[in-house]
Amino acid sequence: MEIPSIKMNRLTLRDQVHQTLLNSITDGTLRPGSVLLETELAESFGVSRGTVREALRSLQQAGLVDSDTRGRSAVHEPNVQEIQELFRVRAALEGLAIREIIELPNRQEIVAELREKLPPTQKGEFTTILNKDLAFHEQICRASGNTILLNSWKNLEAQMRIGLFAAAREESLEIMDGTRHIPVLDAIENGDPAAAEEIIRAHMEEAAQQWASSMS
Q1: How far is the CA of 138 from the CAs of 47, 49, 58, 113, 157, in angstroms?
Q2: In the predicted model, is pLDDT for residue 168 greater than 90?
Q3: Which distant-in-sequence residues (6+ apart) come within 8 Å of 94 by Cβ?
Q4: Residue 213's pLDDT is what?
Q5: Coiled-coil intervals in this record (predicted)?
Q6: 43-80 pLDDT, tens per residue?
Q7: Which of 15, 26, 131, 190 has its C-alpha lying 20 to 30 A from 59's C-alpha?
Q8: Which 8-state DSSP code applies to residue 120?
Q9: Which tens digits make up the pLDDT trace of 90-131?
Q10: Could you tell me which of 118, 127, 115, 116 has the C-alpha nearest to residue 172?
């Protein structure tokens, strides 16, 4: 019997809806508090409400979507405490990444590469600057060579993006200026883990305070 040729899609419909919504949340298209109506989403995607419901449930389990007692869903709106906790965890992860980079024999080469990836110093569109800032911090974790550390950081990224979009202000761009990251690279280059870790901790603490004040 000849088996007919069909085009297989590696992603299920639920996965496709999930990924599309995730992308829209993390790129700021769907901002914190945006209402997600099953009927509208099902019509927009051309899928059943059940498929949309499954995708929303998956996003809810990841802490990116909230649902009330009546089943209405919306993009999660983080509070000040969540923002502060996220920055503290980032400080711990990136502090460890820095220590591991300093122990590597090619740390000078790594620092040179990181300097080339510094976020821009000029002002620009918020999402563009945010993407470059997070890419720089992700690269620090990647350069450590610690896969578990990198994956832990990446697992926080979606929640971090929601938090930053929730408190997005023009003045918030200053904390992401490339020049603010140079001291930590200097400390890594000099092989001073304590200084580098303290710089990244202070940077994250200042960022947390600035973002938190933007939400109040």
Answers
A1: 35, 36, 24, 13, 9
A2: no
A3: 137, 140, 141, 153, 200, 204
A4: 79
A5: none
A6: 998 999 999 999 999 999 999 999 887 778 999 999 99
A7: 131
A8: P
A9: 999 999 999 999 999 999 999 999 999 988 776 678 888 889
A10: 127
Q: What is the CA radius of gyration of the chain?
A: 20
What does the alpha-carbon distance between residue 75 and residue 66 come to, in Å, rounded to a whole number? Answer: 6
3-state secondary structure of 124: coil
Query: How far from each other are the two terminal CA atoms of the chain, in whole angstroms?
Result: 68
Tokens describing residue 145: 């060579």
Alpha-carbon separation of residue 181 from 3, 119, 163, 175, 201 (angstroms): 58, 8, 21, 9, 12
Secondary structure tally for the chain: helices H, strands E: 9, 3
Using DSSP's 3-state secondary structure scheme, residue 143 falls into helix
* d(C-alpha 131, C-alpha 134), whole Å: 5
Distance CA 202, CA 75 (A): 30
pTM score of the predicted model: 0.85
Q: How far apart are CA 110 and CA 118, in angstroms?
A: 13
Q: Is 207 exposed, middle or buried (0-12, 13-18, 19+ CB in 10 A)?
A: buried
Task: Name the residue among 19, 33, 29, 21 with its Cα closest to residue 74.
Answer: 33
